[in-house]
Amino acid sequence: MPALNPDDAKRLAAATALDLVSSGMRLGLGTGSTAAHFVSLLGERVAAGLDVLCVPTSERTRIQAEELSIPLSTLDETPELDLTVDGADEFDANLRLIKGGGGALLREKIVATASRRMVVITDSSKFVETLGKFPLPVEVNLFGIEATRRMIARAAAGCGCSGEIRLRQGADAEPYLTDNGHYLFDCRFGSIIDPNGLALALRAVPGVVEHGLFIGIAAAVISAGPSGVDVFGRLD
Ligand SMILES: O=C(CO)[C@H](O)[C@H](O)COP(=O)(O)O
Fold it and tell me: Where, in this chain's numbering, is substrate bound (predicted)?
């Protein structure tokens, strides 16, 4: 097989996930460049007659899906979904993920958890032995963020956390605001030896709305790279 560049690999993973979709399904649509490939390919299938109803995980994805005339719903109208397909910033062999690089982790986690199955699509560079090279996004309420930042650092004692507020891209250096009106801390914990323990500790901080550790949520990861497609977990 000829070498794949990362974007081709993302599209290949997305195309593989599309095989899991059939008419009548209610789908969660992820956020990010890999998920955007899936939405684009899904749009082609919808134009050819595929009948699906989709819940987007971000305004960005909603706009893309709307432009492609993909039928959309909200989680309030459609609270149970068959399948969510989304990207990830990192995954390990136990299907644990870091998500939120695109800023949509809260809706992504709500939508994925409301789905019978979550299937992750990535290029193979996202595989890690130990989570934590990618800074963990933590969505926080705007009230008392310095206090919250200190509590996160204490909660992650031993991880050597330094959390930085994510800024909008561009020159204004204003904090990035999520679709839900919150800030994000990008937390450098180093190697996350105990993801379950860290997840529990973060949830115990009152100002933390949600964090980007997805544990026990993904059923499978479709990872595409130079050697083709690898599937971690089960697709059925
Ligand atoms: O979690 C996410 C958005 O919040 C994305 O799925 C994650 O950042 C991966 O993005 P990409 O597919 O662009 O590499």
Answer: 31-34, 86-89, 99-102, 126
